[in-house]
From TrEMBL:
The keyword DNA-binding is assigned to this record: no
Biological processes per GO annotation: regulation of cytokine production; regulation of leukocyte cell-cell adhesion; regulation of T cell activation; T cell activation; T cell receptor signaling pathway
Organism: Callorhinchus milii (Ghost shark)
Keyword Transmembrane helix set for record: yes
InterPro entries: BTN3A2-like_Ig-C, Ig-like_dom, Ig-like_dom_sf, Ig-like_fold, Ig_sub, Ig_V-set, IgSF_BTN/MOG
A Gene Ontology cellular-component term: external side of plasma membrane
Signal peptide stretch: 1-17
Gene designation per UniProt: LOC103190618
All copies of domain Ig-like, residue ranges: 25-130
UniProt KW keywords: Disulfide bond, Glycoprotein, Immunoglobulin domain, Membrane, Signal, Transmembrane, Transmembrane helix
Organism domain of life: Eukaryota
Protein name in UniProt: Butyrophilin subfamily 3 member A1-like protein
Amino acid sequence: MGLKYCFLIVLLSRASASDDDEEEPILATPGYDMVGTVGKEIVLECQLSPRKVAADIVVQWFRSSRERPVHLYRDGRDQLQRQDPDYFQRTSLFTASFTAGKMSLLLKNLTVKDEGTYYCSVNQFNKTLTSPVTLKIGAVGQQPFIKLIDLSSEDVLLKCVSERWHPKPSVEWFDEQTNKLPLLTDAPRVERSDEGFYRVERIIRLKKDAHHKVVCVINNQLLRSEKHVAFQLSDQFQYSINDRKDDGNFKTAFIVVLIGGLATVIALALLLWRSHIRQKKLLKQCKSILRSDSVVVSSYTPHN
């Protein structure tokens, strides 16, 4: 009896140990921000462990509400009737890799509005596991250009402009030795479009007699990408400024002459008009006199 009792205790203890050793399911997503680029695609990682998948598994990706899922898989197929319309035909799951525990979401044709927190949710064996993942969206904007905006003083103002950036980029001016140039404002002027892109511009002031190259650099720190444009201040540029001044003087003189000519033409026209009126009056008087004379002649009867 003692041996049988001991054996039973050993079996029970082993069974208990086996139950304790069974792994609890874990749903893991990256512990860092994932970064995507506008117009590209990205896989939001989500891994189930251990790799045990029930036939009735439910996999759901959503953002703020489960009622409008980004993607829903249930009853062995995609269920997209209530899918958020912003994600129409842009999502898919790796269903063939479910047995490997891969519950990741493929998100295509990224937009700025896709940025934010997503939740990967798995329901099976009467358990629901949910894990978040954060997506950051970046966009490298258009090639910047430099605009000359002021020639009225001894200084020249140069404005560097570019748009369709995300997130808000940094804008700096440098000289040929890569030294930062002093700026007119502490921060660039920023505007945001309805699509979520940023338009930036930044101004520097330079002397007109400067003879060196300056470079405007716009940097997207999220994507670690930048674009730049250079501007060369030269003697030719200085001459062009003087030419513009001379051209302005010529225009002023031309306008004065034109106004004088118009005044002369108007005066001559007025004199001609007055002369014409005077002639009409004289002609009218002559006709009146002639009518009077004709009446007298016709009524005259000579005496015998």
